[in-house]
Amino acid sequence: MQTLTYRMSLRKEPEGGYPVIVPSRLRCVTYGATLEGSVAVAREANALSIESPRAYGEEILAEEAPLEYTVTLPVHA
User: Of 9, 12, 48, 65, which residue is 20 to 30 A from 40 by alpha carbon distance?
Assistant: First the structure.
């Protein structure tokens, strides 16, 4: 069995809950009420997002080394 590893990006919302994005799986965006719940639904969504390519015999790409940047912007009051 092949094993693939993907990064997840989670952010706590001020009103509660955690949206989750899997950057290398473009359509893999989900949400959970708790951190643990968010990770669980993101794992499931990620697994489902690879089913379509698999069904059509397409290659399922593993995540490559990401390039990440931080941008600092001035805010005028």
Answer: 65
Give the CA angle between residues 68, 16, 42 to the nearest 5°. Answer: 50
pLDDT at 65: 66
The total of other beta-carbon atoms located within 10 Å of residue 45's CB is 18
Domain ranges within the chain, ordered by starting residue: 9-55
Give the pLDDT of residue 69: 77
Residue 32 has pLDDT above 90, yes or no: yes
Give pTM, 2 decimals: 0.68
Compute CA distances 6 → 14, 15, 16, 72, 74, whole Å. 26, 27, 25, 27, 32
* Nearest in space to 19 (alpha carbons), one of 4, 8, 5: 8
User: According to the model, what pLDDT value does residue 14 have?
Assistant: 94
Going along the chain, which residue ranges are E strands? Answer: 9-10, 18-21, 29-32
